[in-house]
Amino acid sequence: MVRTNWKVFEEDYWAINTILQELLKNSNSSSVLLLDKTGQLISSLGEPPQFDLHSFASLCAADFEANAQLAVLIGEKDFSTLYHQGSNESMYLARVEQNIILVILFDKRTTLGLVRLRAKKALDNLETVIRRLYGKLEYENEENTEFNEEFVQQAEVEIDSLFTD
Amino acid sequence: MSLINYSSREINVKIVYYGPGLCGKTTNIQYIYDKVTPETKGKLITLATEMDRTLFFDFLPLELGKVKGFRTRFHLYTVPGQIYYDASRKLILRGVDGIIFVADSQRSRYDANIESLYNLHENLGDYQLKLDDIPYAIQYNKRDLLDVISVKELEEELNPKHYPAFEAVAVKGTGVFDTLKAIAKSVLRNLS
């Protein structure tokens, strides 16, 4: 079952960022991103990108999903990693658990071999954190006091003021 | 379906525009993109064919600003309307928080609307979802054209459960924000 309803808690967020930071440093990559399969960005670290991160994340998720469909057509369950090679910038994408995608952007300061090697360790560590997070979400109290009537009213005022002709 | 990040204090929600080919889904998003302030919008992504038909999806991130300390973002997607892009439509519905069905009011597109709505039900079913489970609105677009079906007739066929419905002329912007506002409010109310 694909999990589409996400909450990332403080402890897990910092655990994720520690792993990504280590990966960034050890692989000598430009930046790393973690997103879910619906294209929602969970975290990003590294050199500030020159592009819209959220649009980039949605395209990465679409890329991964389109390739997963191709995998099925040729008789594979999916492709757990993807690699896009450019003349200067390249991308390495890898699935974490079922629902998360790790994206590594790198240039000529490193090699695919090193990125792949460091990514493997990071993926193991990320899977541990994500599984712990799944566990929390299973037992989480459905009551959410942060998103009360006051939140809704404030949000409605913002929506009315921003979405106008 | 939404992503709530308690550490970075962010909420991301996904709204999908669904409907038959050439009903005006991309026109809705394009109008929104043109009208909102630069600080509100991110990059508009369009994966279209050379004929300007949506191939995979359009995507527009909109930032609402901070609400009770949470930076709130809406991710607007359109699906490709043409029948043979069903795999793409299904993928885009994954993790959806709210749906706007854009119906084409022209008499000649009557069957296409019904077929697309049926397809929406089917694809939601694949994710164990029903329309009653998520915020949903219907937009009757192209109301300015000559040979249009009455809203009463469209309601009977496409909206018997009387979900929120809006008349629109998306190319002129009429009804575009009314539809978006209704679904955006409903999606955030759903979080509480």
Based on the model shown, name its key terms.
A: 165 residues, alpha+beta, 5-stranded antiparallel β-sheet, 4 helices, B: 192 residues, alpha/beta, Rossmann fold, 31% helix, 29% strand, globular
Task: Kindly describe this structure.
- The complex is a heterodimer of chains A (165) and B (192).
- Chain A is of the alpha+beta class.
- In chain A, 49% of the residues lie in helices and 20% in strands.
- Chain A contains four helices and six strands; from the N terminus they run βαββαβββαα.
- In chain A, strands 3-2-6-5-4 form a five-stranded antiparallel sheet, sandwiched between helices.
- The model of chain A has no long low-confidence stretch (mean pLDDT 91).
- Chain B has a single domain, classed as 3-Layer(aba) Sandwich (Rossmann fold).
- Chain B is built from five helices and eight strands.
- Chain B has helices at residues 25-35, 86-93, 110-126, 151-158, 176-191, and strands at 3-5, 10-18, 45-48, 54-67, 70-78, 98-104, 136-141, 165-167.
- In chain B, strands 1, 2, 3, 4, 5, 6, 7 and 8 form an eight-stranded mixed sheet that branches.
- At the A-B interface, strand 1, helix 1, strand 3, helix 2 and helix 4 of A face strand 1, strand 4, strand 5 and helix 5 of B.
User: Remind me, CATH topology of chain B?
Assistant: Rossmann fold
Shape of chain B: globular
State the major sheet of chain B.
8 strands, mixed
The helix/strand order of chain B is EEHEEEHEHEHEH
| Corresponding CATH superfamily of chain B | P-loop containing nucleotide triphosphate hydrolases
Uncertain runs of chain B: none
H/E element sequence of chain A: EHEEHEEEHH
CA-atom Rg of chain A in angstroms: 18 Å
Please mark out the parts of chain A with pLDDT under 50 across 5 or more consecutive residues, or reply none.
none
The overall pLDDT average of chain B reads 94
Neighbour order of strands in the largest sheet of chain A: 3-2-6-5-4
Calculate the mean pLDDT score of chain A and round it.
Answer: 91
Distance between the termini of chain A: 41 Å
**CATH architecture designation of chain B:** 3-Layer(aba) Sandwich
The proportion of residues forming helix of chain A, as a percent range, comes to: 40-55%
Shape of chain A: globular
Strand content of chain A: 15-25%
Continuous helix count of chain A: 4
- Topology, number of strands of chain B: 8
Amino-to-carboxy terminus distance of chain B = 13 Å
Please, how many helices of chain B?
5
